[in-house]
Inverse folding.
């Protein structure tokens, strides 16, 4: 992979120093460090979680990407791998976990269910994709994605991290809130998104009887 | 245990005149019991007729007839066919049926589920709360007149897909407009989430004063985000120090509405959905569903397909138990090594599934009457290599690595999971029941497919502690290998599907309960057909869900750390626990 | 003796540890390549695999079996003048049999007569609903929709595939499923021959 090379082109390094000195940009080394140690949240929802474990196991070995340190606590995690069907009963907890993660944080929707509801989309207890609540960085289709497909998605995420620039990222921007806060949905008669309260209220008021 | 000979047909109506009548609807079997006499008759069925094992309880909503029905399937732990009995009540709220938990405590969670999803109130139930949905949820979703937000039509295929099928995202239609479930003038901002009070209220309290020192209970929540609950499973427990005083499991965090979606699907379309129940063993899930529907359709499975089915089901049992052993290691703090070794062998088994069916985990390999395709070239040889050369040695290696380990033994030995008597009362099936000393295996007790042709022993252990629960998995893997070795040798040539594969199957009206011995216990499917392409009722009786009924019974008085291990040996998988 | 069992267990892990070296050395001396080589990958997935089990995706890949299925795609034949002859006749069987109903098809209507033309005007598969069950490919009577082997389709957006993205040439299909394609081609030829014979007889 070309991204493995730290040296940023544009500067001529004298021949005798070629093996000793590397010239790079701050962005590059910063991103290189971050993308080589993306710690996922130890968080399995459904079938895809088993493929996620399989990807951690001997044959696929995500440790080769610095992603083997599964953290059970969101406070130490960089990436949330939403691996499975997001149900209405579970989504407030997922949003709360996301809010607890420190920046920089990434969300990967693994599999059809997390991306767009999947085969269970029509169900009464199923959320049509985690992107209704959280900003998703990479979508990995498949039901379930094989471990290799998952790793392909992780490489896609690394590419995304590589493209980020220190001067533009939201967590160093003083003008912006330093973290994305997503209002936690409420379990009412059905799942209620606080951002849509007005809509619910209007619909309830318009109801006959 | 010998296969029991079918007993003479039992006439319940003659035994209980006035209280029981035969179910005379075409395609239906069993007995209809008067609502008021249910507990009385049920006690007699258990004590006098010997049906000590009530496995499946479910409701059926007969909307056109204006009736609700509760269906019970009881078995003898000595083996034999099913005894189905039902209670019918008019479909006018409140729909009330007496609870049978006093006779079979194992019905507790299944009755709670029927209340949650069907709105059938079980009088005298000890703890009738919602179980899969949350408290405060509006309506009972499995009722036929209840519609969800993205509801399109009663039955698939949907008309909007063809010939004028422009893609629309269902979620873009406002979920609040069509089938609004909010009461008039509802104000979301004033809504107070309820439910947790009921949960904590159900927990037993604990307070003591010893030597003038007051001790009080602490309530702990484990999960749903917890590394050792095997998924999104939650328990609320009260503890005295580290000892568990009371415990209530909370589930439904992965409730994916299999039953509701299954009733909208055609019979065939349910097949890939069954894959996702117990996602470790999609082959066994396919098997159970195929058995149930084939019973209803009354068709013969081709000979070669039967052998392929057995081979696949046993291979999936092996990989399930290997992963179980590895994960048990994780639960006990032996991090990763056993799990990594187990996953290596699992990969090799999954390679076979992938080559035969096309997918590692979601195999979707079975069809009514056979399997989708014959084993591709070289796959049988691969299976042969695995079951004769590789797996026996690898199982011995795991055995060598763990079984005599003193730390492992001192952690496992003597920590009681459940005894035989309670295991039967609580409808527990599978390895947990057999580890408690009950030699009950559906492959022997009520043989299906071609299992009666193989020579194997029902693995059984006597103590019912953690160690036995671990050892019985090793025993079962070895027995499965025995079955496989015979099956691979005996497999006949021939077609794997009788006739041409068809996507529209004709299923005559009636009901059937098909069950198989899945690696986790009895996996049953209760299917009701009314002659249409879609099932009227499709219910899954998942082993994990019913086995977890006794969790409180198992865990009172044990330490929290042992609770993790006990939960581990029940071997729950959330996909089928919550469905 | 207390501790004997622990040592017995540790000997297993130690043995495994050494094997990773001995196995590499054995391959080194045999002159074959164990890594970044198809034979090596095959051996690592075989019954006698020992030592390092890892397949270092993406540099090396597991051998995908022919029946492997991921998301579906549509097959087209290359016409004489490079036109895409889509095999799909928009009969709608795939969209009817699809369990999660993730296939949307718009049938082409003849602008003059208004009668349906056997060709899809629009074809969508929502890959984020698709459950990869393979029913569409199994029951398609025209061998027009098939399950893909390409799993590297992660993206930064929702995956709704339209006709452009779904169409792939028949040559590609033959390359990923040679046995199936050969069988189907034969069956199709036999069918056409039977049809021609029938027409001749009439």
């Amino acid at each position: 992979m070309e991204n493995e090379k730290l040296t940023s082109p544009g500067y001529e390094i004298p021949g005798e120093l070629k093996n000793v000195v590397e010239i790079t940009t701050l962005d590059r080394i910063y991103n290189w460090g971050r993308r080589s140690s993306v710690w996922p949240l130890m968080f399995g929802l459904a079938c895809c979680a088993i493929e996620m474990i399989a990807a951690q196991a001997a044959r696929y070995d995500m440790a080769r990407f610095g992603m083997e340190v599964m953290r059970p606590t969101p406070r130490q995690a960089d990436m949330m791998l939403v691996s499975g069907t997001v149900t209405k009963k579970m989504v407030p907890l997922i949003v709360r976990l996301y809010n607890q993660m420190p920046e920089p944080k990434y969300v990967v929707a693994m599999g059809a269910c997390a991306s767009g509801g999947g085969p269970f989309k029509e169900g009464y207890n199923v959320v049509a994709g985690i992107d209704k609540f959280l900003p998703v960085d990479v979508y990995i289709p498949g039901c379930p994605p094989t471990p290799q497909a998952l790793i392909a998605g992780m490489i896609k995420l690394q590419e995304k991290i590589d493209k980020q620039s220190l001067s533009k990222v939201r967590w160093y921007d003083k003008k912006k809130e330093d973290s994305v806060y997503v209002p936690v949905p409420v379990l009412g008669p059905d799942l209620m998104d606080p951002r849509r309260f007005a809509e619910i209220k209007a619909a309830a008021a318009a109801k006959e009887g | 245990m010998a296969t029991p000979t079918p007993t003479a047909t039992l006439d319940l109506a003659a035994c209980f005149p006035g209280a029981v009548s035969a179910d005379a609807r075409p395609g239906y079997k069993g007995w209809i019991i008067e609502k008021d006499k249910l507990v009385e008759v049920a006690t007699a069925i258990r004590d006098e007729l010997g049906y000590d094992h009530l496995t499946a309880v479910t409701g059926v909503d007969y909307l056109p007839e204006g009736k609700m029905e509760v269906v019970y399937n009881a078995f003898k732990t000595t083996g034999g066919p099913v005894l189905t009995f039902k209670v019918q009540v008019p479909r006018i709220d409140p729909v009330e049926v007496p609870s049978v938990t006093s006779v079979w405590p194992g019905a507790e969670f299944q009755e709670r589920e029927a209340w949650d999803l069907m709105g059938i109130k079980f009088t005298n139930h000890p703890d009738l709360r919602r179980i899969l949905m949350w408290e405060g949820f509006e309506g009972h979703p499995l009722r036929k007149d209840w519609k969800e937000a993205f509801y399109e039509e009663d039955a698939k295929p949907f008309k909007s897909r063809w010939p004028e099928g422009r893609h629309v995202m269902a979620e873009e239609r406002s979920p609040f407009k069509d089938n609004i479930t909010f009461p008039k003038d509802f104000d979301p901002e004033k809504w107070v989430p309820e439910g947790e009070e009921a949960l904590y209220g159900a927990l037993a309290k604990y307070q003591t004063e010893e030597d003038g020192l007051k001790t009080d209970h602490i309530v702990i929540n484990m999960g749903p985000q917890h590394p050792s609950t095997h998924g999104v499973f939650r328990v609320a427990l009260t503890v005295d120090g580290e000892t568990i005083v009371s415990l209530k499991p909370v589930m439904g965090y992965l409730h994916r509405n299999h039953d509701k979606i299954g009733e909208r699907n055609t019979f065939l379309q349910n097949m890939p959905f069954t894959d996702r129940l117990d996602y470790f063993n999609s082959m066994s899930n396919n098997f159970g569903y195929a058995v149930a529907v084939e019973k209803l359709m009354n068709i013969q499975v081709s000979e070669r397909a039967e052998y392929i089915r057995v081979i696949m089901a046993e291979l999936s049992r092996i990989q399930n138990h290997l992963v179980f052993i590895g994960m048990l290691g994780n639960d006990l703090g032996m991090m990763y090594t056993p799990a990594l070794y187990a996953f290596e062998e699992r990969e090799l088994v999954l390679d076979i599934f992938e080559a035969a069916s096309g997918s590692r985990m979601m195999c979707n390999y079975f069809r009514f009457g056979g399997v989708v395709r014959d084993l591709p070239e070289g796959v049988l040889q691969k299976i042969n290599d695995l079951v004769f050369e590789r797996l026996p040695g690898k199982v011995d290696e795991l055995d060598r690595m763990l079984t005599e380990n003193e730390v492992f033994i001192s952690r496992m030995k003597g920590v009681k999971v459940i005894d035989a008597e309670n295991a039967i009362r609580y409808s527990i099936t599978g390895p947990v029941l057999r580890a408690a000393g009950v030699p009950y295996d559906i492959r022997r007790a009520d043989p299906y497919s071609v299992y009666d042709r193989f020579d194997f022993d029902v693995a059984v252990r006597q103590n019912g502690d953690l160690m036995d629960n671990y050892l019985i998995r090793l025993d079962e893997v070895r027995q499965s290998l025995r079955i496989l070795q015979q099956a691979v040798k005996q497999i006949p040539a021939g077609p794997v599907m009788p006739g041409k594969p068809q996507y529209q199957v004709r299923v005559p009206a009636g009901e059937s309960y098909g069950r198989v011995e899945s690696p986790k216990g009895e996996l049953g499917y209760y299917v009701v057909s009314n002659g249409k392409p879609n099932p009227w009722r499709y219910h899954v009786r998942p082993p994990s869900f019913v086995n977890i009924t006794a969790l409180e019974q198992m865990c009172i008085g044990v330490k929290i750390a042992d609770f993790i291990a006990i939960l581990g040996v029940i071997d729950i998988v959330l996909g089928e626990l919550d469905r | 003796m207390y501790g004997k069992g622990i040592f017995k267990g540790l000997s297993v892990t130690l043995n495994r540890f050494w094997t990773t070296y001995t196995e590499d050395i054995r391959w080194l001396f045999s002159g074959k390549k164990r890594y970044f080589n198809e034979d090596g990958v095959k051996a690592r997935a075989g019954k006698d695999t020992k030592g390092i089990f890892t397949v270092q995706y993406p540099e090396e890949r597991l051998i995908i079996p022919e029946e492997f299925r991921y998301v579906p795609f549509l097959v087209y034949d290359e016409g004489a003048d490079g036109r895409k002859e889509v095999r799909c006749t928009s009969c709608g069987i795939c969209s009817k049999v699809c369990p999660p109903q993730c296939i949307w098809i718009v049938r082409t209507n003849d602008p003059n007569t208004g009668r349906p033309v056997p060709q899809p005007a629009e074809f969508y598969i929502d890959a984020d609903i698709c459950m990869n069950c393979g029913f569409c490919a199994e029951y398609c009577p025209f061998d027009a929709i098939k399950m893909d082997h390409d799993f590297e389709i992660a993206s930064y957006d929702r995956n709704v595939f339209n006709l452009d993205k779904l169409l792939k040439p028949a040559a590609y299909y033959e390359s990923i499923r040679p046995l199936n394609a050969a069988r189907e081609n034969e069956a199709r030829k036999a069918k056409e021959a039977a049809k021609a014979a029938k027409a001749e007889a009439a």
